[in-house]
Amino acid sequence: MKQFFSVSNVDNLSAIVKEALEQKKNPYALRNLGQNKMLGLVFLNPSLRTRLSTQKAAINLGMDVMVMNMDKDGWALETRDGVVMDGTTVEHIREAAAVMGEYCDILGIRSFPGLKDREEDYSEDLFNKFVTYCNKPVVSLESATRHPLQSLADLITIIEHTPSGRKPKVVLTWAPHVKALPQAVPNSFAEWMSRAKAEGLIDFTITHPDGYELDEVFTSGATITLNQEEALRNADFVYVKNWSSYKAYGKVLETGTEWMPDAKKLSVTNSAKVMHCLPVRRDLELASELLDGPNSLVIKEAGNRVWAAQVVLKRMLINMV
Ligand code: SN0
Asked: Does this model's pTM top 0.90?
């Protein structure tokens, strides 16, 4: 594997989940694989789980890790070509990425969308330039439009909690928030779950208020409804996430609070397990009675971030030997 950016970098979902769960059973089996190999993690935005789980995965594989918080400790980066840099940006991504490539064998980068210019965000210009100029394998730690390590961990969690031979009903539901958040997590979840559906692993439904339609590139193959109750009926897994509008790009539309999942809403499910990528705003996005309840998978889901990162790093390292 040379790049981990989207579901298209993985050819068989069952196989990668199986491989991840093998690592979970035996985390240190490949300790020699990463010896004398350096992972560089570059953050242009905050992170808790991605930072710690990816570091832990690398250490489990015997790698060394360096972390660069560009937003706090680095120079302001220029990404445009052909501009005179007489403003606030100090260093061009051409040099910055190339230099980090000199120091590292694998790089990871996190960069959220600006949520102002849809075309610019969806072009993934920054991620693509980073890949081009660093000249090393790159793992997305959440880009403008996707969060693939999260989606892989989500799939691992769903498979792990599904009795063999069953095809669970997985529902992605929009939930309220006070801020405009990226579409990266739901886009990515939708593209991974649509592929899991195509591979016969799950059934997949998306529900959201009018105006919150995601880009169809990610949702083709999913059942989509504006009726949350209908979507939740007989669900085995409910994945809760807020996102800002894709159509009215980056806007928070007026919806009220009634979309927040709580125990009453989930009474029509098949005792559904509750998932969220975290961080979660308690009792705004998701009722604390669900977060603290027996069907919450949020902590186990976050735990599985390690095995998602570890299987991706393993596949990249194996390419190098
Ligand atoms: C990010 C998002 O993409 O939704 C990261 C999720 C892994 N979430 C936030 O930025 C939450 C910010 C907030 O104020 O709640």
From this structure: yes
**Topology of the domain comprising 162-296:** Rossmann fold (3.40.50)
CB atoms within 10 A of CB 54: 27
- Best residue for ligand 1 mutational test, from 49, 154, 181 (most atoms within 8 Å of Cβ): 181
Token pair, residue 115, equals 């949520």
- The top-level CATH class assigned to 3-146+304-320 is alpha beta
**Closest to 187 (Cα-Cα) out of 154, 151, 140, 152:** 151
pLDDT digits (tens, 9 = 90+) for 173-222: 999 999 999 999 999 999 999 999 999 999 999 999 999 999 999 999 99
Name the band, by pLDDT with cuts 50, 70 and 90, for residue 271. Answer: very high
User: How many angstroms is it from 143 CA to the middle of ligand 1?
Assistant: 12
Ligand 1 atom closest to Cα of residue 279: 11
Q: Where are the domains of the chain?
A: 3-146+304-320, 162-296
